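Reopening this ticket.

The earlier resolution said the output was attached, but the attachment link was broken on my side. Pasting everything inline this time so it's all in one place.
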Amino acid sequence: MDIRTAPAAAHAETRRDDYRPPDWLVPEVALDFTLDPDRSTVRARLTVERNGAHDRPLRLEGDGIAATWLKVDGAPVEPVMDGPTLVIALSGDRATIETEVALHPAANSKLMGLYASGGILCTQCESQGFRRISFHPDRPDVLSVYTVRMSADKARFPVLLANGNCTASGDGQDGNGKEGRHWAEWNDPFPKPSYLFALVAGDLAPNRDSFTTMSGRNVDLGIWVREADLAKTAHAMAALKSSMAWDERTYGREYDLDLFNIVAVDDFNFGAMENKGLNIFNSRYILADADTATDGDFDAIAGVVAHEYFHNWSGDRVTCRDWFQLSLKEGFTVFRDQGFSADMGSAAVQRIDDVRVLRSAQFPEDAGPLAHPVRPESYLEITNFYTATVYNKGAEVIAMMRTILGPDRFRAGSDLYFDRHDGEAVTCEDFVKAMEDASGINLAQFRLWYSQAGTPTVSARLDQDGGRTVLHLSQSVPATPGQSTKQPMVIPLRTALIGRDSGAELAPAQVILLTEAEQAIAFDGITEPAMLSINRDFSAPIILDVTRAAGELESLAEHDPNPFARYEALQELMLRTLIAGANGEPVDPAPVIEAMRRTLASNALDPAFKGEALLLPSESMIGDRMPLVDPDAIHAAREALRRAIGVALADPLAAAQREGAPGSDLSPAAKGIRRLRSVALGLIAAGDTLRGAALAKAQFDNADNMTDRQGALGILVSLDAPERQAALDGFYDRYQADSLVIDKWFGLQAAAQRRDTLAAVEALARHSDFSMTNPNRLRALVGSLAMNQWAFHTASGEGYRFLADMILASDRINPQTAARLVPPLGRWRRFEPGRAALMRAQLERIVAEPNLSKDVFEQVSKSLA
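Inline output:
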């Protein structure tokens, strides 16, 4: 059941420095569930042991639950509560604690603990959801062996799943004497924290397969979905088997149980959850076929399936001591899934995508009021720290370690980490220490990446005087909330010098470690004018400010042999042009147009890379490079450049748009052709609306895959053309029964570059298919609008009012989802004064709301501080 949280003033801060080992350990947990959507009962038996010499009582956390009865060593005891916490005074060093609680899954709109989703009963326990199921210490450093028994109505819930291996099952009566029920018992032999507990009961059908590990063991695999969705699970199963083989090959990690199960549910706060042996997924990251899923969807499914599977070692077998160490498992595992995705496709395109996500989500976080280190120092609500900083910047920190150590020593460090800490709850420091011990390299200064917030800026200048070539580097880290003074970071910069005349590498690529506020590096034997190719492959998550000669970016965009550096040069050329336009300066689009023409014409570049390289920086990225964001000026500058490109390159763009035949082949080459096709189509439409609309509608009508169909619709939604509404209506009519595709329909309209987008979104919020209770649908509509800089930041402030309304409404239903909608308002200081005042006013309105959840309160109060 759901309960409202305490008033904002009562919210207590948790600090990393206050960590203390648990007073009591729980080596064994036995759970007995009698399952029903309206009322389920949970009987728990905990074996507890005193941890050290102390006389403190046992404290078992609860959230919205009450003990029907309590027994200590078999004797009934009257429960004593300290707020939501059950307090039990124990005289001995070991005891058996038994409790019973009643739950109401169908009424649990928070989607934490035990809840109902589309007729399925399932759990979500990370980070503190287990306390909504049963009384428990509910902290990640308390590891237990779990035995679980479930009974349920066999007709409604024929499938009963939990962590580990199924040890027994049968038909018959349960404890209430009801007929028509069945039961199953599960055991997980590996000690795990409560956040990794999982249970699922439902009418589900399996896609079954198997995998043979490198030691010859057979593992039974199952992906469980509704019968009607079974045909859409083949790609996820293939991704699972590929990720199992990749982890063995790359990290030497073999799966350890006899079973590995995945269940897909429609209502889920996150993308997926790595519960030991029973992953629970948001259905959008499992279900896919060519008609309903784009190439991006297929790639995301493979990446998320791999991510959750990789957690079996980086998160499950070795877990976090406390929630401040969240990046220990998430940053490392994101790094691992990025490596998997790079190996499965184009490494250059994958790196471009990784960096685009970092710049669009994490860099703004680092530059705003919610900035925090990769290892935070305090929180009010831990779910607010499932952030791009912890995940994506955390992955970049791991990547930098690999760059500094080299692949062999990094692998030796990961082996040592897993072997040394198997079955333990550890810290980020333990991970770094394993890397040091295995490599012999001191990473003391490098640890600042875990403790200092903010994105470093590195300035670079290459001086050539006669036969002497010197690279001058300097770094600075901006002040962030609670950290006004910063120390120099260790910044690995993969660097090469490129001949301005020859285009050849004059100095071989090397990694330069910038460790001081200022450094100078000399290069010998350089006789030709040189261009600086620096931070290749984005070797460090920094903002780079390079002094460039006229024409240098254009030359690098054509000649740099490093694909990512080539992409960066073209993007920087675009950015400088766009920023000048947004500032009202005269703009010559010719250099950008010519660089794009050469990119399109190059036979050395594959279509996937061309598609990424020709995509202009987003309006939000342009704003991030300006002192204050003026959405109207930025939008006008970007549209003007897109229009100029579309006119000047109409013919080569049309050729790219026609390239290849439609189809659903998922090879990297085919996906690249489809990617380039949609990017080219968007630029054609920018130069000639009528022609673009006709081509887009033809692509929409003739598409035999969702990538081409959605690509065309994504362009049409922003145009003033009759084809727009016809395509929207046709899309809805075709897919109205498929909730995941209708999420796309909502999201595309919210992302439209139109003056009436906000009004359209407000109307869609009243559509019969819109639901406040489903996180996917809420994110598709409201989240997409908030990321649409021009449409959201209307000068009237109506976009801010609408978002505040939705935050307050969803906070009463699901505070986690509501809190994730706050950051777009929290960046109010970055905008011109009129908009800034309107954004701040909505934040003040939200924080003044009575009974605001601590999830939303923390985000809003920090945004105002």
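Reporter confirms the inline version is readable. The chain is about 40% helix and 20% strand. The first strand starts at residue 14 and ends at 15.
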